Amino acid sequence: MAFFDRVAQVWKGFLSLWVSDLENKNPEAVYEAAIEERIKKHRELKKAVSGIVYLRNKLQAELEQKTKELNEINLQIPIAVEEGDDEVAVVLLEKKNELESAITNIGGELEKISAQAEDAKQGLVAFQAEIEKLKREKMEMLAKKANAEARIKIQETLDGLSTDADIKALENVRETIQKKAAEADVAGEIRGESLDAKLAKIKAKTSSASARAQLADLKRASAARSAEGVNVGKKTI
Fold first, then answer.
1. Which pLDDT value is given to residue 61?
2. Is 9 in the same domain as 87?
3. What is the pLDDT of residues 43-71, one digit of tens each?
4. Within this chain, do residues 74 and 145 fall inside the same structural domain, yes or no?
5. Quick one: 56 exposed, middle or buried, by C-beta within 10 A (0-12, 13-18, 19+)?
6. Residues 59/109, Cβ–Cβ less than 8 Å
7. Backbone angles phi, psi at 163, to 5 degrees
8. Terminal CA-to-CA distance of the chain, rounded, Å?
């Protein structure tokens, strides 16, 4: 027996964990079940309260009827006494005593039942308010759950985005740009050392020397013509 009791306890534990897991995964169903259970109890409570109210109303009607009968007898007794009908007067007095006793008892019961009915009605109203409160709590908690899940999802998404790729891409771009800049610097540096550049310099110098030689020839020719003109003038004189 002890073995089977332990097995039963273990299964109860597994079942409890399973139910708890289901509840955590579907809180809306848990709230709905709780609300439905309270609505069911509210109907039962309402039925019980209606029974108390019915009994109160019945006692109230019975008290009113007994009071009406007592009032009528109180009017009949003096008449019977005046007419000298003792037998009728005695019967009326006995009936009066019975009614007064019944009215006292009914009044006491009615007071108790009325108090119970008021308490029951207040409890019914409070229970209804509790159901409405639970409905509001359900909406608020489910909204809070949805908001929390959305925030967690956003955070997980952000956590999943690694900045390593962005940093690496930036480094690659920077390195490429720096390499291009270095190529431009090298091109500028070696432009003056190239063979074509040297030939261009020599050609420029050659052109300049030729132009200077031509200029010197022109100057000598001009000087010669000037000197010749001076000699011609002297001979003429």
1. 94
2. yes
3. 888 888 898 899 999 999 999 999 999 99
4. yes
5. buried
6. yes
7. -85, -5
8. 167
For Cα atoms 183, 184, 188, give the angle at the middle one, nearest 5 degrees. Answer: 115
Residue whose token pair is 């534990």: 13
Which residue segment(s) compose the domain that 71 sits in?
A: 2-161
Asked if 21 and 55 sit in the same domain, the reply is: yes
- 100 compared with 218, residue with greater pLDDT: 100
Six-digit token pair at 100? 């007064």
pLDDT tens-digit readout, 97-134: 999 999 999 999 999 999 988 988 888 888 889 889 98
H, E, C per residue of the chain: CHHHHHHHHHHHHHHHHHHHHHHHHCHHHHHHHHHHHHHHHHHHHHHHHHHHHHHHHHHHHHHHHHHHHHHHHHHHHHHHHHCCCHHHHHHHHHHHHHHHHHHHHHHHHHHHHHHHHHHHHHHHHHHHHHHHHHHHHHHHHHHHHHHHHHHHHHHHHHHHCCCHHHHHHHHHHHHHHHHHHHHHHHHHHHHCCCHHHHHHHHHHHHHHHHHHHHHHHHHHHHHHHHHHHHHHHHHHC
Q: What is the mean pLDDT of the chain?
A: 77
Co-location of 97 and 146 in the same domain: yes
